[in-house]
Amino acid sequence: MSLYLDISSELASGALDLWNYQATNMMTSEDLMSFEESVYRYMHRNRSLDVDTMSYEELLELEEQIGKANAGLSEDTVQKNLKRMKYPSSAAYKAESCCICQEDYADGEELGVLTCGHDFHASCVGKWLVQKNFCPICKKTALST
Fold first, then answer.
1. Domain extents for the chain?
2. Which InterPro entries does the record match to this protein (predicted)?
3. Could you tell me which CATH class the domain 75-131 is placed in?
4. 3-class SS at 100?
């Protein structure tokens, strides 16, 4: 609540200063708009968040204030829409490894194939899609629902 009061009193003081300045200096509308923009930038200079410098407790508090952002899919949606295939043992199909876990594919392992065509271990990509619905390689939408 004190942050709100600080902002309100700062805004009121700035508005009064602006009114007095405009009245005594006969500002044009362009000057006034430029001045208002400068005042706005000054008022909001410390409002940006640098999450890289925040402690774990501060991040938890921020999450409580703004809510948890989830861009992933439900496990049910992943189960229904993820195309699956077995890793073939033929030399013609030579995918190197799963880029999520960095493990090589083994013969007969179940792979999950995204709409962009990239494949991963089915369990790895399933966990990924619950967090984010985009391909870890090309960033395209992973599964359309």
1. 2-48, 75-131
2. MBR1/2-like, Znf_RING, Znf_RING/FYVE/PHD
3. alpha beta
4. coil
